[in-house]
Amino acid sequence: MNGLPSSSPPPSGLPSSGLPPSGPPAEMASWHRLHPLSPLVRTGRHLVGLGIVLLILLFANHSSGGGGNLIGDIVVVAVALVAGVISWLVTRWQVADGVLRIDTGLIRRDSRRFPLSQVQAIDVVQTGLARVLGLAELRLRMAGADSSGGRLACLRLADAERLRAQLLSMAHAPAATVGAVGSPGPPIQAGEPERPLFRVRPERLAGAIILSRTGAYAAAVIIVVALVVGLTGKPGVIAPFLAFAIGVVLSVWRQFNTEFGTVVAAAPDGLRLRSGLVQTTAETIRPGRVQAVRIVEPLIWRAFGWCRLEVDIAGPRQRRENRSEGQRLRALIPVGSRAEAEQMLGELLNVPPRPSRRAPGRARWKAPLSYHFLAWAGDDQYVAAARGRVCRKTTWIPLEKVQSIRWVQGPLQRRLGLASVRLDVAGRRVTGSIQDRDAAEAGDILARLPDQARAARARGLVR
User: Fold this and answer.
1) Could you tell me the CA-to-CA distances from 187 to 124, 167, 463 in Å, in that order?
2) Based on the domain organization, do 391 and 302 belong to the same domain?
3) Model confidence over 267-291: pLDDT tens digits?
4) Most CB atoms within 10 A, among 96, 193, 234, 256?
5) 50 shares its domain with 160
6) Which pLDDT tens digit goes with each residue over 148-173?
7) What's the pTM?
8) What range does the domain containing 404 cover?
9) 17 and 160, same structural domain?
10) Is 125 part of a structural domain of the chain?
């Protein structure tokens, strides 16, 4: 079942789930429901566990001959399904006056409004079950909002993609590529196709994950489990640690599944990202929404000439089940060559400065392992800062995105005459840190940056 067209009534008298077929945005002002199979897709992640529990209960009831218990189990499952259907029936959405409105709740009504002008990005997400059914979930990323609210799960895939395009159009995204983080790049005609920028290589992604910290943890767990079982000859010994081992292995799989097939392209409405193996995600990052850019170069990766390019986007607090995903930045390049990272950096930033001003020699006493990476540079558009011990991280912060500037000086820094300056942005997952500078230099930076940031914001408003 691939969704129900809104032009014909669905079976069993259920309301339509789709959008008006390619109609004008004004038609979205009427109320619409989600797809009737939405409860099934939303609970899809629990179906395997529920099926195992039901099989165990059925087996136990069959062995004990407890027919009454079997009927009770069926009643519990039926109640759960009815609750899902009721949740679908009381959920509706509309778009009017530049605002997406989502109403839900039976006893306690919850009405949420999302101004489209505040949209940071819009994702189209498909779980494995949703892909089988031809459905997709639409997720809105709002600065400072809770991501659990801006979700339409689920719509037909074609409806979700069309709705995303209409919402971005209504949000007045500039018709340009992402040539600079804070400003549009060279104009693109509305009908112009996407311009491919990057595609991850699956074998390189697998190798990079294995050679990462997460891969090292997983390998250590597997080796320890194999050694314990081999030496004791009793597999039951590892039972108390099995949950931890499974969690580590699943974290490796989750990262591979999330970043597999990552494709980045420039389009009139911004950067378009597609990724995922089982659960796929299609995301659009509008021009001017990127708060910071970071290139990460782990020690082992540098031997192969690999690096990772991440962006920080002003976005929501994550729901509990998405917390691990929210703690990671969005990787435009999960793993790629330095040349690919430089090319993507050129698409995001307009002539970015390179960290070249090294820290003073006495900073070695405070940071002997990271001293050789400490550097910074800046101009009237960006601040670039490099740091790290065995993993080098270089961060670029657009001055027009700076929310606050902090002076930091610890006890050891005071004795050595050093200080650090930190720049905070709305994304709050990246901090531009100019570390361990001479105290006089740090004071000069702190005095100049507020005026430069103010001027950069003024230029952004003029554009």
Assistant:
1) 25, 20, 13
2) no
3) 887 889 999 998 888 888 877 788 9
4) 256
5) yes
6) 558 888 899 999 988 988 887 787 54
7) 0.75
8) 357-462
9) yes
10) yes
